[in-house]
Amino acid sequence: MKKKTITFILILIVSVFTLMAREPQDVEPLVLKNVHLIDGKTDKILKNHCIVIKDDTITDIYPLGEKEIPAAAFLLNLEGHYVIPGLIDAHVHIGHMSAEDVRMVLAWTLKGGITALRDMGGDVRKLAALRRDALLHEIESPYIYYSAIMGGPTFFTDFRVVGSTLGETPGKLPWAKAITPSTDMRQAIAEAKGSGAAGIKIYANLPKEEIQRIAAEGHKQGLKIWSHAGVFPARPIDAVLAGVDVISHCGLLAWESAKEIPQTYERRHEAQYDIALLKDKSYENLFKEMVKRNTILDATVFIYLERIAKDDKKMAEFCIEVTKMAHRQGVKIATGTDYIYKPGAPFPTLHYEMELLVDKCGLTPLQALQSATRINAEALGIQDRTGTIEKGKRADLVILSADPSTDIRNARKIRYVIKGGKLYIRQ
Hints:
Elements: H1 2-21, H2 24-27, E1 30-37, E2 46-54, E3 57-63, E4 74-77, E5 82-85, E6 87-92, H3 99-111, E7 114-119, H4 124-135, E8 143-151, H5 159-164, E9 172-173, E10 176-178, H6 185-194, E11 199-202, H7 208-220, E12 224-228, H8 236-242, E13 246-248, H9 281-293, E14 296-298, H10 301-308, H11 313-328, E15 333-334, H12 349-359, H13 365-380, E16 397-400, E17 414-419, E18 422-425
Helix pairs in contact: 6-7, 7-8, 8-9, 12-13
């Protein structure tokens, strides 16, 4: 009897210390009380609502006063605050950073409201480890999704690919595969999927027939297919007709109306950047086809205006106008930056991408927010888990002290970030 009593006391002590070690929201529900809700799905703002979070999931949403708040809940009173879905950057490159730098940047990015990101071509050996640590909350980081690159054999001398495959042979790896007509596509896609990639990035120097093969087999095996808008010699329309899910870079759309297209990616910036070309019927046809097939445009306006076209006014103007035209015709615009961290900037570049979409490209603040949340989640293939604020979805949220629907710059006024139910304070 004495032995059983001692055993019971030991179990009780261990249980108490286990509960003490866990964060409040891991033990009892976290309740966001009296917050204004921007859900990412509609243009409505739901005033004075409560959001209940248990572990990593939103378990209830209701107007303040409609239900009793659980007595043991960890309560965050948010009167006058706004909550939006966690932001997603649909186009970054972090695999080249040192271990110290990347962890610093990821923590800073998370506190800047980014709860998920898509790496579009890097060293999968590094990315897989970071993805695992972020998933288990062992580092402060957004959730990480990454791609496997496919391109023509001539592309794999590019210094970026060489850097992401050090110690191995570029073009012969699951995450950096050279594609020819003799490639066993079923095997190539299976190997890419086995590397943990969420999608295939079709990079460069491939004809449209190979893009079609990649897209067909990739979808069959449950992967997203992401492509540069210009793959060379394939045009933007070739990638869209092949069935890719997303095309990247507004500047590459300039090749849609070109009489001749280069055979290789190295000449990608030699297009004519003349907004008069947008009157060409080819652009209207391209955007109609994208709407029909639900192809998303990852415009990356920021990288063009800040870096690529910084000293080229015609290119910058073209990028703005072609993105504006795509949006006007109903194409879904994803927000990607291609450059997650701008030295000296107080916020991740996704905020500046959203602001450019509003200031220059015709989106409303709510549309820009939806672009950075719901549409980006769709681009990554994670819309069943995140991207909108709904009961049953993962608790990825940003709490703001001002209304971003009236001024997109209010999306910078971050008080708290919640990623997978974990609460972070922006200081």
